[in-house]
Design a protein that fits this description.
Elements: H1 15-24, H2 28-34, H3 47-55, E1 59-60, E2 65-66, E3 80-90, E4 95-98, E5 105-110, E6 115-117, E7 126-138
Length: 140
């Protein structure tokens, strides 16, 4: 398998396309042109993302696994498609607030380098609350 590289999203709701690009090795814009962009793909409707991955040679667990204290990503031996909520530091109130759009965020767990590859490239103070993941079983 080829080494994973971070792909950054070029659309506000393009984290799912960037995640697909990381796993398939195809360019973000190429995938976007092949796939009818149906807006945002959320954890409640991951079907378009799973269809896109399957059509491009990536097999992902159909069932997502909820994150708990007993299943941290660092223990995964497989790459994973990760769904999370992202909160940013609100400077005025010195607390974290959720990002309203998008309501969720797709990232990739790189099991070889033990790093979470974030297509948004968020900077500043933030908190990522990982909700679930799907193991990547095969990829080109």
């Amino acid at each position: 398998m080829r080494k994973l590289k971070t792909v950054f999203q070029s659309d506000a709701c393009g984290c799912w396309l960037a995640a697909a690009s990381m796993l398939t090795g195809q360019q973000y814009e190429e995938l976007k042109s092949k796939f009818s962009f149906r807006g945002e793909v959320t954890g409640r409707s991951a079907k378009p993302l799973l269809e896109l991955l399957s059509a491009n040679g990536v097999t992902v667990d159909l069932k997502s696994t909820k994150i708990s204290e007993t299943t941290p990503l660092q223990n995964l031996e497989h790459d994973a498609l990760v769904y999370a909520k992202v909160y940013f530091k609100d400077g005025k109130k010195n607390r974290f607030r959720i990002v309203e759009k998008p309501p969720g965020h797709w990232m990739i767990w790189d099991s070889e380098e033990k790093v979470l590859r974030d297509p948004a490239g968020f900077d500043g103070e933030m908190l990522v609350e990982i909700r679930s993941y799907r193991k990547v079983l095969t990829r080109p």
